[in-house]
């Protein structure tokens, strides 16, 4: 009978597919609609009446309320037919939309994560039954992205005319699954409600079952009073000092033996405590099992518990004893006792408590460190501020004494530089703590960089009569590719730190060495900064790199600073995949070693650099467009530039600067100094507008950012906006001249 039905289904499918492939043909081959009757077996063609019947079948299948789908058994499962319900299930209006959505394959309509399991299920069901419909349930993705669940009743058939096929009855089961989920949640809710009503039910049972034998009642009260999760369940009457077991564990079984007879409650509890309870917990257990204590606890509550430990075969286990009151509300004699393992719960509690205590301790230490840091910083920042205010007053009082005036101005400048360094270190560590550290590698000459560091700090060393020496004899390859800005900052910090903690007549040595690595163009570079200063005690060595940590404050050490310099240096070194290590002996000195792997290059022929004097001579009288919205900045910067020999034109916003450049004649401005943060048009936008001008002589004017935004990402944003360089405030003419020398002497030549 099943074979006849399958044969009938196969013939109906062939009629249906014929109607699809040859909707207007008089007699067309199902296998190949393009083949004429003379080219194929006559059995593969249908006459007009059969064609009409095929169309009727298609109309019927199109309109049936359930989804119906036919696809090839080979390859990806090309879809040959899908009725309107299938299109509705996939939220498609036309068959073309359905083909685009699914790729016109069965694999394409199954949700990606379900394909493997669906195909395996279909194969398994086909192997076990050639006649029954196979059933699978899987997800699909509708047009629009919604995920739905469908159930699939399919069967494999073979047609001599069409080949191997699957025909499928499909229905959307999303709502059914949702109903099942809601039903399951309702059951869980009902279970929770029943648990909450359990205590009430115990009281009701006590009233309703007074006529039942007392033993039966006690058993029922035990069953209802405690959960099946308890390994030991016992019933006790405090008035009669009797205890009876209902469930025993390996720990409670020896006290009762095989007969499960009544025992003395006091005898049992003391024996159990002495035999099993961990010594440190015995006092608490004795208190919890004292009859008077039990009555006191249960007078205000239906139940209470105590956690304790037992020793089992070299393992310390955590148990919980729960005691519940049963019987009449006003009776405090009958109780149920239950014990259960709570190892995971207790250990989790202990872990959470340890985490909380550690976090609290860390927070307290951090708070103490920050409070100490702020206290020190208040002193360290007020010191240079006091110097600036004091020497400014002295300069005003001695305005006609050039020698004293020069001395006071120099000290004001030193105090300002120190204050700026303090602020820079605070901002740098704040930026690093937020995770913003970027490296930018470029070609660099190590000998030039190290000589520049020595030159920059030599005046400070000479002022304290400290010998600052540089040894680069250990370098074989000095031309390297790395982030020279960060390396310079690291070494400046280490050398400056050594100078701070080295007394007069002392020595600070910078030693650079190189070890060629396995790769042909890589080497391991070490930069050692040695001093014979005060040194560091061993217990402080690990703390000196921590933020907000200072071994001694400014007053004790006499050294002004944030205590953040070494923190900044180490984090910069780690950002460059390097390390900083320290060795120190109290009273003998310290050695900080910064180590890195750099890619080196064979040195090119030296290119002679034009001196700055030549630059000043050639640029004398050239006009600079100075753009800044702050009048004080404009006044200071314009006077410094004019004193250097430049002509200056001012603009108070980026939009004004763009207009001044647009209407100027080529060659009017040799350079533009551009602030970043301005109210109407910022420096980035203004630069992009200038670079977009159609006249090359105007759009190509060199632009240098002059901004209080001083971090590496700020410099990168300036370059990306079209600027030639980035100069951080406060404004220093010497640094500007170095940048101009690079622009005019190396990049674009002198302005005309």
Secondary structure: elements and pairs:
Blueprint: H1 2-21, H2 48-63, E1 67-72, E2 79-82, H3 84-89, H4 95-102, H5 106-109, H6 115-128, E3 134-141, E4 147-159, E5 163-172, H7 174-196, H8 198-208, H9 214-225, E6 232-237, E7 242-247, H10 253-256, E8 263-264, H11 265-276, H12 282-288, H13 291-298, E9 303-312, E10 315-325, E11 334-341, H14 343-397, H15 402-433, E12 442-445, H16 446-463, E13 467-474, E14 479-482, H17 484-500, E15 507-516, E16 522-531, H18 554-557, H19 565-575, E17 579-585, E18 589-600, H20 612-619, E19 623-627, H21 631-644, E20 647-651, H22 654-663, E21 671-674, H23 683-691, H24 696-699, E22 703-707, H25 712-721, E23 725-728, H26 733-747
Parallel strand pairs: 13-15, 19-20, 19-21, 21-22, 22-23
Antiparallel strand pairs: 1-2, 1-5, 3-4, 4-5, 6-7, 6-11, 7-8, 9-10, 10-11, 12-14, 14-18, 15-16, 16-18, 17-18
Helix pairs in contact: 1-2, 8-9, 14-15, 15-19, 16-17, 17-19, 22-23
Describe the structure.
This protein has 752 residues and is of the alpha+beta class. Helices cover 47% and strands 22% of the residues. The strands form four sheets. Strands 12, 13, 14, 15, 16, 17 and 18 form a seven-stranded mixed β-sheet that branches. The chain has a six-stranded antiparallel β-sheet with strand order 8-7-6-11-10-9, sandwiched between helices. β9 and β10 (315-325) form a beta hairpin. α8 (198-208) runs antiparallel to α9. The radius of gyration is 44 Å and the shape is flat. Mean pLDDT is 78; it is low at 1-8, 24-45, 553-562, 605-610 and 748-752.
């Amino acid at each position: 009978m099943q074979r006849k039905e399958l044969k009938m289904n196969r013939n109906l499918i062939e009629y249906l597919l014929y109607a699809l492939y040859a909707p207007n043909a008089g007699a067309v081959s199902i296998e190949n609609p393009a083949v004429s009757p003379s080219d194929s077996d006559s059995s593969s063609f249908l006459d007009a009446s059969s064609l009409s019947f095929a169309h009727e079948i298609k109309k019927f299948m199109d309109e049936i309320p359930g989804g119906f789908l036919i696809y090839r058994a080979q390859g990806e499962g090309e879809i040959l037919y899908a009725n309107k319900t299938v299109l509705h299930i996939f939220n498609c209006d036309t068959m073309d939309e359905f083909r685009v959505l699914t790729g016109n394959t069965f694999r394409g309509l199954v949700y990606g994560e379900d394909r493997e399991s669906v195909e395996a299920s279909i194969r398994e069901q086909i192997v076990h039954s050639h006649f029954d419909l196979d059933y699978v349930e899987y997800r699909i993705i509708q047009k629009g992205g919604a995920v739905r669940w469908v159930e699939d009743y399919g069967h494999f058939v073979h047609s001599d005319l069409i080949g191997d096929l699957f025909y499928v009855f499909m229905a959307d089961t999303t709502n059914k699954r949702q109903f099942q989920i809601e039903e399951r949640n309702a059951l869980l809710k009902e279970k929770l409600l029943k648990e909450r009503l359990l205590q009430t039910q115990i009281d009701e049972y006590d009233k309703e079952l007074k006529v039942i034998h007392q033993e039966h009642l006690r058993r029922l009260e035990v069953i209802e009073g405690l959960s099946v999760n308890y390994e030991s369940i016992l019933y006790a009457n405090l008035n009669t000092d009797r205890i009876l077991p209902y469930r025993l564990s390996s720990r409670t079984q020896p006290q009762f033996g095989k007969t499960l007879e009544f025992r003395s409650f006091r005898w049992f509890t003391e024996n159990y405590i002495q035999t099993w309870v961990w010594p440190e917990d015995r006092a608490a257990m004795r208190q919890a099992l004292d009859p008077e204590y039990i009555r006191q606890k249960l007078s205000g509550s239906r139940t209470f518990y105590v956690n304790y430990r037992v020793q089992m075969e070299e393992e310390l286990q955590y148990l919980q004893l729960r005691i519940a009151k049963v019987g009449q509300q006003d009776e405090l004699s009958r109780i149920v006792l239950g014990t259960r393992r709570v190892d995971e719960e207790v250990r989790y509690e202990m872990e959470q408590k340890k985490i909380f205590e550690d976090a609290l301790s860390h927070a307290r230490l951090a708070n103490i460190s920050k409070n100490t840091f702020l206290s020190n910083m208040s002193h360290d920042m007020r010191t240079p501020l006091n110097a600036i205010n004091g020497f400014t007053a002295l300069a005003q009082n001695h305005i006609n004494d050039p020698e004293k005036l020069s001395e006071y101005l120099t000290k004001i400048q030193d105090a300002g530089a120190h204050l700026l360094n303090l602020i820079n270190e605070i901002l740098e560590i704040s930026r690093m703590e937020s995770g913003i550290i970027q490296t930018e590698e470029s070609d660099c000459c190590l000998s030039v960089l190290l000589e520049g560091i020595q030159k920059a700090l030599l005046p400070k060393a000479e002022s304290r009569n400290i010998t600052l020496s540089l040894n680069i004899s250990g370098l074989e390859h000095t031309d390297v590719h790395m982030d020279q800005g960060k390396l310079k900052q690291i070494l400046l910090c280490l050398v400056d730190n050594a100078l701070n903690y080295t007394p007069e007549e002392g020595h600070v040595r910078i030693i650079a060495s190189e070890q060629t690595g396995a790769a042909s163009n890589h080497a391991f570079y070490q930069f050692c900064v040695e001093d014979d200063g005060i040194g560091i005690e061993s217990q402080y060595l690990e703390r000196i790199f921590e933020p907000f940590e200072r071994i001694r404050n400014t007053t004790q050490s006499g050294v002004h600073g944030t205590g953040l310099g070494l923190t900044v240096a180490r984090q910069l070194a780690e950002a460059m995949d390097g390390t900083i290590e320290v060795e120190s002996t109290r009273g003998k000195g310290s050695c900080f070693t910064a180590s890195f792997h750099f890619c080196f290059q064979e040195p090119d022929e030296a290119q002679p650099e034009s001196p700055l004097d030549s630059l000043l001579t050639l640029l004398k009288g050239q006009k600079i467009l100075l753009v800044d919205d702050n009048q004080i900045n404009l006044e200071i910067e314009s006077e410094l530039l004019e004193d250097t020999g430049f002509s200056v034109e001012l603009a108070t916003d980026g939009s004004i600067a763009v207009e001044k450049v647009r209407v100027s004649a080529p060659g009017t401005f040799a350079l533009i100094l551009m602030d970043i943060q301005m109210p109407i048009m910022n420096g980035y936008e203004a630069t992009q507008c200038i670079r977009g001008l159609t006249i090359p002589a105007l759009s190509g004017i060199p632009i240098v950012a002059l901004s209080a935004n001083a971090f590496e990402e700020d410099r990168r944003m300036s370059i990306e906006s079209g600027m030639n360089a980035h100069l951080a405030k406060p404004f220093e003419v010497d640094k500007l001249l170095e940048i101009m020398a690079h622009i005019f002497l190396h990049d674009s030549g002198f302005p005309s």
